[in-house]
């Protein structure tokens, strides 16, 4: 391809001009090191120099003064601009210096000598904390302390058979609750089948597991972790499932502590409930941190609900480790939800005085009639042509 085929008309910030000649300068940034008693120096290469572009340009014609003034404005504007270089193509540059010259000998022309500098990128190290990694790590630490507390509290050894039977029945109830909560969460593939088998084996092996508290606790944590892991594909649904699971056992009839054996049965019941609730709350925090919330209000509501659950854990536990890890997890939750990367719209309320179309309301509220469907859907309006007056509506403020 001939050079003329690649030659491009020169412009800067969209303002055109003619080019007499152009030069490019560059090189390498080097530091020369010379050492005592050594004849051979060492040159340290620090990278490429910023390129400079010097162009001898001109504007010409009967109305050259208008073209001259337009180019002067472009050259004195703030910040980087796009230079279409006749030989090098489009470049992002800043102005270093320029000079303009006119003479009566060359009437109808203004000459420019312009030095452009390669603008590059303003990139600096990012000191922002990785909130997802931090909350994941803290959730894991909390789960480990909750598991240790469970193993210390739960025991059926040397007790009548009805104590272990009660714990087995509790596990069967838990398996049923998890099965009903996770319907559809795992889809219909192999993961769903594997999870169903794990739940079934938890119930089937309950009579044996209750005699091995450490194994039992690990199985319970693994089941909740499986729910959390699958919930990451649909974080809002996963968070809701885990929050519901975090309330398991609250309505169970308490065991009356009439004897020492009944007291042990009551402690076992409470230990099982505590472990499931604590681990479900913990994993709900990590799932919530990954959720792309539709509104700031929904993110804050979920965050506050989870923070309240962790407050309850801290108030009710007799384990110092569980208390401290719950406190640290609460701190990470407040920092991570909603994510600092998310600029979320906020909810407000508006009551139209009269019935009118959603198109009209959307334009009045947002200056954007295309948001009519959003307004109608969020407020469950039967017909978008008739938004009832006198009813309070939820309105998204996108800022």
What is this structure, in a nutshell?
By secondary structure, the protein is of the alpha+beta class. It has helices at 3-6, 64-75, 131-153, 161-181, 190-204, 206-209, 213-231, 235-245, 260-289, 296-316, 320-336, 358-366, 372-378, and strands at residues 11-12, 15-16, 18-25, 28-33, 42-48, 52-60, 81-85, 89-101, 109-118, 346-350, 393-397.
Structure description:
There is one protein chain. With 399 residues, this protein is of the alpha+beta class. The chain folds into 3 domains: 3-118, Beta Barrel (Elongation Factor Tu (Ef-tu), domain 3), CATH 2.40.30.200; 131-336, no CATH class; 346-397. The protein has 13 helices and 11 strands. The strands form 3 sheets. A 7-stranded antiparallel beta sheet has the order 2-1-7-8-9-6-3, with helices on one face. Strands 4-5 form a two-stranded antiparallel ribbon. A hairpin with a 7-residue loop joins strand 8 and strand 9 (109-118). The longest helix has 30 residues, at 260-289. The chain is elongated, with a radius of gyration of 35 Å.
């Amino acid at each position: 391809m001939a050079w003329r085929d690649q030659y491009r008309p020169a412009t800067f910030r969209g303002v055109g001009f003619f080019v007499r000649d152009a030069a490019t300068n560059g090189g390498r940034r080097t530091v020369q090191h010379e050492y005592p008693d050594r004849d051979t120096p060492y040159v340290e290469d620090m990278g490429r120099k910023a390129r400079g572009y010097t162009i001898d340009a001109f504007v010409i014609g009967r109305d050259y003064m208008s073209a001259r003034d337009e180019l002067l404005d472009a050259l004195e504007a703030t910040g980087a601009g796009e230079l279409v270089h006749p030989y090098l193509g489009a470049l992002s540059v800043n102005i270093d210096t320029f000079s303009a010259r006119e003479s009566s000998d060359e009437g109808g022309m203004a000459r420019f000598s312009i030095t452009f500098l390669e603008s590059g990128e303003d990139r600096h190290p990012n000191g922002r904390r990785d909130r997802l990694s931090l909350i994941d790590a803290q959730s894991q630490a909390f789960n480990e302390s909750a598991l240790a507390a469970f193993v210390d509290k739960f025991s059926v050894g040397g007790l009548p058979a009805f104590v272990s039977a009660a714990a087995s029945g509790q596990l069967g109830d838990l398996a049923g609750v998890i099965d009903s909560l996770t319907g559809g969460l795992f889809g219909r593939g192999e993961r769903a089948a594997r999870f169903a088998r794990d739940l079934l084996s938890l119930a089937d092996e309950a009579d044996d597991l209750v005699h091995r508290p450490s194994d039992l606790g690990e199985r319970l944590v693994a089941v909740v972790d499986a729910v959390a892991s699958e919930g990451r594909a649909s974080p809002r649904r996963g968070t809701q499932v885990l929050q519901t699971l975090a309330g398991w056992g609250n309505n169970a009839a308490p065991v009356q502590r009439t004897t020492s054996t009944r007291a042990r049965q009551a402690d076992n019941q409470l230990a099982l409930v505590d472990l499931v609730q604590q681990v479900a709350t913990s994993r709900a925090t990590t799932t919530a941190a990954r959720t792309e919330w539709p509104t700031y209000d929904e993110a804050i509501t979920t965050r506050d609900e989870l923070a309240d659950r962790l407050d309850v854990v801290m108030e009710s536990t007799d384990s110092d480790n569980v208390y401290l890890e719950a406190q640290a997890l609460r701190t990470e939750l407040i920092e991570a939800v909603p994510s600092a990367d998310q600029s979320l719209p906020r909810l407000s309320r508006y009551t139209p005085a009269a019935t009118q179309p959603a198109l009209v309301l959307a334009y009045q509220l947002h200056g954007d009639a295309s948001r009519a469907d959003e307004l109608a859907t969020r407020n469950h309006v039967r017909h978008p042509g008739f938004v009832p007056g006198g009813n309070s509506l939820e309105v998204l403020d996108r800022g």
